[in-house]
Amino acid sequence: MIPFSYSLAASERDALAQIAGGAARFIAGGTNLVDLMRQDIERANTLVDISRLPAAVAETSDGGLIIGAAVRNAALAADPRVRARYPMLSRALLAGASAQIRNMATVGGNILQRTRCSYFYDVPGSRCNKRAPGTGCDAIGGFTRYHAILGASDRCVATHPSDMCVALAALDAIVHLEGTAGKRSVPLADLHLLPGDTPHIETALLPGELITGVEIPPCPAAASSTYRKVRDRSGYAFALVAVAAALEVVDGKIGEVRIALGGVAPKPWRARRAEAALRGRAPGRDAFLNAADAELADAEPLEGNTFKVALARNTIVAVLGGLAGDVA
Amino acid sequence: MAIAINGTDYAVPDDPRVSLLDLLRERIGLTGTKLGCNQGACGACTVLLDGERVLSCLTLAVQASGRQVRTIEGLAGDGGQLHPLQQAFIDHDGLQCGYCTPGQICSALGMLEELRRGDPSHVTPDLSAGPGALTRDELRERMSGNLCRCGAHNGIVDAILEFADGGGAK
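YS: structure for the whole thing
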């Protein structure tokens, strides 16, 4: 039998000390890691359990929230402060997975979950540059309904599966990290990396580094925000296209606007071009269409997902129209 | 440390790779909890862990150390009388083959506790106000992590609604 060990971390410092060396992994809710180990994709020989570290949602001094990495997805979605101030985050969480999985999955684990590309999962039958660098990508030219139209490369077209991260990207969330070299913070929008030539390198985390929390800055505009997920069935499915958006209209002009897309890119996709196209303009269908087109101008759909360009465009327009209070 | 399963303490397995599902079925002989997909997609293995519904196939048994597990075997009364939700499933034909039923029932009990707390769902119109009454739409969304390949969903919804209306949601 292959040697395998498990230990329960007593503190973040304890977790960092235990993770050093070998094929060790932190485990929290386990909803992705246990599956990946069973599929022989993750080959950890040591698990350091961080699921019982203290986890809470707390106020920051500037009026934002700091979320402990081990807070469960269900608890975060139900938090009254999140529901009132950042409804797009509650909505994104509630659109993801199933109630059972949301009860188990943590915020840190949700961020670090891996793609659900079926070729990535098909260990015996498919080539995958993410799973086995340099071997090729069988998704390209294959069944690509669920794959990326933005930010992909000729090495990898997989999407990032998280709903929560799409809202966090729109909210300018900051991820707090701790490693043996100390603490640092990285904007969530910079944490996940585009595949380029190295699709197996998925995040900016250093080896052994631990996510300790996620900070959400204050964003008054987000009190009027939402998350819309378009998928093949209305429950318990990954996104074809998802849109997180907040929109503030002042004196007939768009002020603060936040848009991020899910299901279309290898990372939670902050739609900064669309936002830039909207600031200062009068809200309306033409402005929303123009913004969506600006964001999607560089879209490179694959044979199996050309529909996603129009779907993303229409969903952006519909979500912004709903937030602006008109019929889109 | 031990795992309390339906009120009885069991030792944590020596091999940390053993899932809670395999501990229940293969090592303790509690085969009421079912193995469906073994990858978190079907809900057949749902159990209550400290009162919260979770998937036992994706839970390592060692992670349940020191915690309370409740399975379908732990629901009937001491005299063997069925839990009212079990009876409601029979009364409303909430099953055909029965394979998903233990997971459906454990999931429904966890779901009703979430509803009692006022937790919103994907279909809750007003997040701040919370879910209010258990509508069919709320129930279907909240139970969407439990698949039934026989197609007994309408009976399942009726059974849970009757149980909830009878005080189960209080």
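YS: worth flagging: The beta strands of chain B are 2-5, 8-11, 46-49, 52-55, 68-70.
IM: good catch. Also Chain B touches chain A through 38 residues (CB under 8 Å).
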